[in-house]
Recover the amino acids of this structure.
């Protein structure tokens, strides 16, 4: 028997795989959102904040540079021979201004390098657009600061030379450039801070959106899981409930109970097993009924010869028997004993066949099995002048218990020999066919035949003999049908008087 696949196991594995797949999708989505959010946070931490620090440093140093420039002018206005405080203050302010000017140049170059490195680091298009604009702004700041620094140093040189009026006049342009540069630095810093703040808000919004999506997907996953569990449970519970109800009906004696099976039923293997069990129970009950009928028929068949034998024994016990009567009674007793022996042998054969029904099936060559049966019956075949034509080309092999296939062939051949037409040579044709996926043996002869429509139910009953002149137990078709029914096969008989009989047996 081919082992059925475990449908419940398969469905559980599929459903579990589906749920795991959903969990993986949910986890992958959450991980992707987290990675994306972390990337945005990394951009803020590694790009925006350092640039803001540098630009803030530029702004701070520039303001201090402007203060040093104003202090230098104020001290220059107070300088006179002997005023050491003013001379010293001017020199210190001049030195600080020049130092801060160089520091601002360095800061701007550092800011430019930081932006250039950030462009190589980031993959965000919005960040790249912002950095490219920032890079242009820094380069302009470098150019403006160089111009401002040159003009401021010219003023310092004039102050150092004592040309105060020219220096004060030139300082107005420097202060204008200074003011303009400070505004540019402040504007660049403010725009960058605003962009960073906007980016932080976007990151926060994405985090909120990610949480919403994760919660939504989690709820959806829970709903799908509940639906899957409910559907799966129902598809298991419904057939199990049907099995329970069916078992109750069978327990009450309704052996025809079967469970309808849908093509995609999860519990198909359980339902099929239940239906097979019900088939077996039905078959067993049928077998019991047939055996009871067979027992009654056997008892009835044995009753007459036993009664006759008793009468003969009574006759033998009389004292007035002559030799002629004794011989006649003895001959009748022998015939009665032969009849009893034949009935008992038939009964033994039927019981033996029943005992061997559960035998294992094996791969058989049909022709070889038939040859064995023919060899055991060769004497009767020759004496009947019978010819046997075989054709097993369409289905040469069959899976069946060998002893039972041999019994089937033995009784089919015995029936053909017993019911041959004495007016013509007996011809037997045996062939195998494959019909609807089943192996079918067709056994045909040209014997006496009978009305198969009239006797369609009687021919399978034990001890049925439609031709009284034929000597036999009348168990051939009964034994064949017993074997065929056990293996869930089928048998069909077609016959007409004087036109032989055709018996088609579906083995498996």
């Amino acid at each position: 028997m081919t082992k059925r696949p475990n449908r419940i196991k398969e469905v559980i594995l599929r459903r579990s795989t589906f749920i795991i797949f959903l969990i993986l999708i949910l986890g992958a989505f959450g991980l992707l959102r987290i990675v994306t959010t972390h990337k945005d946070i990394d951009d803020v931490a590694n790009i925006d904040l350092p640039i803001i620090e540098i630009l803030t440093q530029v702004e701070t140093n520039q303001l201090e540079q402007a203060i040093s420039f104003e202090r230098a002018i104020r001290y220059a206005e107070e300088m006179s021979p002997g005023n050491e405080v003013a001379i010293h203050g001017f020199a210190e302010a001049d030195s600080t201004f020049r130092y801060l000017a160089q520091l601002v140049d360095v800061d701007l170059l550092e800011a430019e390098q930081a932006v250039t490195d950030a462009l190589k680091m980031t993959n965000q298009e919005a960040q790249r657009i912002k950095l490219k604009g920032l890079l242009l702004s820094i380069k302009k700041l470098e150019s403006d600061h160089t111009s401002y620094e040159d003009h401021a140093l010219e003023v310092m040189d004039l102050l150092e030379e004592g040309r105060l009026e020219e220096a004060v006049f030139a300082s107005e342009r420097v202060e204008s450039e200074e003011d303009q540069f400070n505004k540019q630095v402040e504007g660049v810093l403010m725009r960058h801070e605003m962009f960073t703040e906007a980016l932080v808000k976007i990151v926060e919004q994405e985090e909120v959106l990610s949480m919403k999506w994760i919660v939504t997907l989690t709820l959806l996953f829970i709903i799908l899981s509940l639906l899957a569990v409910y559907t799966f449970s129902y598809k298991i519970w419904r057939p199990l409930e049907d099995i329970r109800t069916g078992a109750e009906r069978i327990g009450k004696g309704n052996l025809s109970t079967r469970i309808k099976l849908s093509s995609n039923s999860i519990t198909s293997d359980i339902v099929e097993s239940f239906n097979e069990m019900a088939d077996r129970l039905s078959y067993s009950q049928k077998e019991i009924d047939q055996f009871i009928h067979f027992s009654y028929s056997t008892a009835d068949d044995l009753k007459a010869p036993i009664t006759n034998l008793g009468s003969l024994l009574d006759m033998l016990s009389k004292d007035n028997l002559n030799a002629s009567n004794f011989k006649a009674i003895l001959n009748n007793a022998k015939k009665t004993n032969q009849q009893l022996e034949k009935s008992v042998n038939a009964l033994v054969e039927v019981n033996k066949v029943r005992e061997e029904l559960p035998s294992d099936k094996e791969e058989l060559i049909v022709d070889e099995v038939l040859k064995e049966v023919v060899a055991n019956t060769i004497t009767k075949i020759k004496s009947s002048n019978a010819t046997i034509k075989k054709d097993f080309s369409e289905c040469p092999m069959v899976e069946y218990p060998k002893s039972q296939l041999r019994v089937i062939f033995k009784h089919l051949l015995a029936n053909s020999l017993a019911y041959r037409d004495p007016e013509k040579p007996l011809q037997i044709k045996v062939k195998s066919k494959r019909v609807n996926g089943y192996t079918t043996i067709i056994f045909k002869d040209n014997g006496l035949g009978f009305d198969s429509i009239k006797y369609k139910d009687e021919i399978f009953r034990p001890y049925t003999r439609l031709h009284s002149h034929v000597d036999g137990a009348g168990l051939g078709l009964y034994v064949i049908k017993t074997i065929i029914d056990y293996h869930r096969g089928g048998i069909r008989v077609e016959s007409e008087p004087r036109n032989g009989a055709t018996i088609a047996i579906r083995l498996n």
